[in-house]
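Subject: Lrp/AsnC family transcriptional regulator structure
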Amino acid sequence: MMQLDRYDWHILRTLQNNGNISNQDLADRIGLSPSPCLRRVRILEEAGFITGYRALLDAKKLGLSLMALIHISMDQHTPERFNTFEARIVDIPEVLECLLITGQSADYQLKVVVKDMDAFQELLLNRITRIQGVSGVHSSFVLRRVVDKTALPLANG
C-alpha cells in the first residue's frame, strides 16, 4: 500500500474539487514546482487513487428533470441471476448508479434520471422489468437534492 504524504493528500483534495485545474495552478496551490507536482499526480493515477476526470453536467438544463430511486427485488439469489441483471443494467444510460444492497427487501437500488413521467414509465416497464429475474420494483421520486457532492471525505494528510 502506497503511503501518502501531505502533498499527496493536498493534491487529492484539490483535484476532486477541481479536476480541471492546470498543473501550474495545482503546483502553486500545494507548494511544489510543476514537474514534481505532475510526477505525483501521475503516480497517484497509476496507483489507482485517481480513477478518472469528468465534467459534471446540469441534468435539468439538459431536459432530464425527473430523478428516481428504484428498489429491485430478484426472484432468485444466485450469482448467475445477479450477473445477468448487472450485465443488462450497465447498458441502460438512464441508470446513474446501481448498488447491490442489504438490509432492505430489495436486492438493488438504482438511481435513474429521465425527462418526465412518460420516459420513466417507458424505462421501467419496457426495459428494467423485462430483465430476467426482476420480480419486484418499488420507486421513489426525488423531490429535492439536499446534499449532492462527489468529493470524498479526506480527513488524513
